[in-house]
Amino acid sequence: MSEHHLTTSWATGPFLGFDTETTGVDPSRDRLVTAALVHRGPLQADGGRSQEVLTWLADPGVPIPSSASAVHGISTERAQAEGRPAHEVLEEVAVHLATAMAGGTPVVVFNASFDLTLMEHELTRHGLDTLHQRLGGPLAPVLDPLVLDRAVDRWRKGKRRLDAMCQVYGVQVDEALHTAEVDVAATLDVLEALAQAYPEVARMSLEDLQSFQVTAHRRWAESLNDWLRRQGRVPDAGTTWPLATGC
Prior knowledge:
Number of strands: 6
């Protein structure tokens, strides 16, 4: 990417990266266990960026299945002993997310339709204003490296998990993924590398990128659902982004 593009693109930052670890894989039913936000500042003249990491451990109020604990390492006992009340964590995280979006700072989330949908359901469950209510409209701007990667490199074979995409985009991860703050930093690094690799993405405005991702996700989901039908399987890929259908 040319210096001119860097000075005029959203890719210079700032960003607010976001990730959660949860009690399961259903964003409408499962609960927040940990959350991480990484405030990454604008690109400086020396190529550096400021960075602030915020993390939370919540007591979800329900048992954490062993299958979920095996992924993120948080047991029910630890969450009960060390975690803060879920409603306090949710409120604090929601304030950061809504403030960033309202101010035009992109919220960067890998597979955003999971984490943001989970947040909306959890906020509703605890009697708190949703992000949609706080913003008075759609959740934006949101940048999702998974959706963007599927759009710009549609036919690449292989998995699209975060660890696989770190390899594709040359992102070094020194710690194990599935710790929320490590996942957020890796997601931001992948986004920056993707913007370098595909300058046409970096040249788009955030408003255009929002629409681009909505369309790209729908196209991907409809294609996957068609394939599932041909295989005699249930077409269960949600077509809406950055929130799942019905949220």
